[in-house]
Write a structure and sequence with these properties.
Radius of gyration: 16 Å
Strand content: 25-35%
Low-confidence stretches: none
Distance between the termini: 7 Å
Number of helices: 5
Shape: globular
């Protein structure tokens, strides 16, 4: 099947579809529904990802059906963890959010492709680093992010099994002719 990756636009129908996909994936992966303090960026997706110049959100679709199969968001680092005040700033550090891949499309390179698109964007808009947090109890998450070049900055040892990670942006120079990229994915 062919996959197209597009930037999320201000189209209200597209935003609604992305929100539904994200909440479906959160329910499937974490077992809970909407939590206001954790999911504000999904509810106000335009304020977090579309409107700010140095933020973006990408969506992967099956070309044949238009079905959403993956997402990733990248935005300026906006957390205030005391442990990281000396490491990260909103001016030089971006952060990855909401990388989800439909379970039918895993282990075929789509997550890596989504991340490379986000990393390229971060490089183009002048970020030096990328921060993310993940959870040790997510199947394959630590291994995936390590493969993408991230290192553990802090293992929180909390009940959510949170691990904070970061990496230096590699300075990729990929200049697509427009904001749509197409890939073939074998399922």
């Amino acid at each position: 099947m062919n996959v197209t990756i597009k930037e999320l636009s201000k189209n209200s129908e597209q935003i609604k579809d992305v929100q539904e996909f994200l909440f479906k994936m959160i329910k499937k992966e974490f077992g809970y529904d909407y939590v206001p303090e954790w999911h504000q960026d999904i509810i106000e997706i335009d304020e977090y990802y579309i409107n700010p110049e140095r933020n973006n959100f990408y969506v992967a679709y099956f070309e044949e059906t238009g079905e959403i199969i993956a997402t990733i968001g990248i935005r300026s680092y906006d957390k205030d963890f005391p442990e990281f005040r000396h490491l990260y700033s909103k001016d030089t550090t971006s952060s990855i959010w909401r990388l989800f891949v439909d379970e039918r499309c895993r282990r075929c390179g789509l997550a890596s492709k989504m991340f490379s698109v986000a990393e390229n964007f971060a490089n183009q808009v002048g970020y030096n680093d990328i921060y993310l947090h993940t959870h040790k109890n997510l199947d394959g998450a630590l291994e995936f992010w390590t493969k993408m070049g991230f290192v553990v900055a802090l293992d929180a040892n909390d009940e959510l099994e949170t691990v904070h990670m970061d990496k230096k942006i590699q300075g990729l120079e990929i200049n697509p002719s427009d904001n749509t990229m197409s890939y073939a994915v074998k399922l």
